[in-house]
Amino acid sequence: xxxxxxxxxxxxxxxxxxxxxxxxxxxxxxxxxxxxxxxxxxxxxxxxxxxxxxxxxxxxxxxxxxxxxxxxxxxxxxxxxxxxxxxxxxxxxxxxxxxxxxxxxxxxxxxxxxxxxxxxxxxxxxxxxxxxxxxxxxxxxxxxxxxxxxxxxxxxxxxxxxxxxxxxxxx
Amino acid sequence: xxxxxxxxxxxxxxxxxxxxxxxxxxxxxxxxxxxxxxxxxxxxxxxxxxxxxxxxxxxxxxxxxxxxxxxxxxxxxxxxxxxxxxxxxxxxxxxxxxxxxxxxxxxxxxxxxxxxxxxxxxxxxxxxxxxxxxxxxxxxxxxxxxxxxxxxxxxxxxxxxxxxxxxxxxx
Lengths: 171, 171
What we know:
Shape of chain A: globular
Largest sheet of chain A: 4 strands, antiparallel
CATH superfamily of chain A: NADH Oxidase
Number of domains of chain A: 1
CATH topology of chain A: NADH Oxidase
Number of strands of chain A: 5
Helix content of chain A: 25-40%
Oligomer: homodimer
Largest interface: A-B, 63 and 63 residues
Distance between the termini of chain A: 26 Å
């Protein structure tokens, strides 16, 4: 089995991270992987907001705690977040986001970096005070966040995730 | 740069295929890559319909020609199609589909097989006579097709796809 297939099969969501910082070169490679995803009609109408600052991530978590009414919400305390957003007028934005997110996860895993999809921003990204903070962090007003990738070095093993049966048929 | 990153950066959509048949082992590896994608809340509520039969693909193309009013529609005459569907009640189905589609594209590319996302089924998958044919091909009534991957050996070089500028910012 080639390295690409091995990397796909061994990726698992990681929900606990060490304090170690992801090197700049790896950040650049992960972001480059994201922008090389395919997009519907090649529109590339997406926007990636890279938050590689634990204080800024903590501010975002605090805003989400308020919106969710959950004081324990912490985005898994990652070293880095990448928000994947699409133009709100693009009906293919969620499909594009899925492709870009998977590139982020696979690129990270190939570099020994763990990741997980955090989904709660998606429901709140036009609500205040979240939108104001996202604007401060560089998200265009035209864009909605469909995916949030939390990244860092794994603090422990990933859970096993058995595959569901019966999801494939051959016509 | 590692093999995983190279594979991500060199994948391009292929829209013209030779008559060569994809070997069964490669089909199995591509399908396995698909089902190892992450899914929201790990629901794995997706369904993959593998159509590795040129006559069946031609029948599907004929139905689409009728629905689209376009006699030239041919799904790019691939060797194989994989329809990626999600339970219609799953609000994260499009995001899951994007991840699984990208795994299909990347696994195929790592095996020297070209691919492209064909998007038109998405709008018509509950219309007749398409739904009846999809049922015949094994798609559950509960599921809607969000993504269609056309696969085969490339008949020519892929078009270059320059990346859009200004899609990334560092908060």
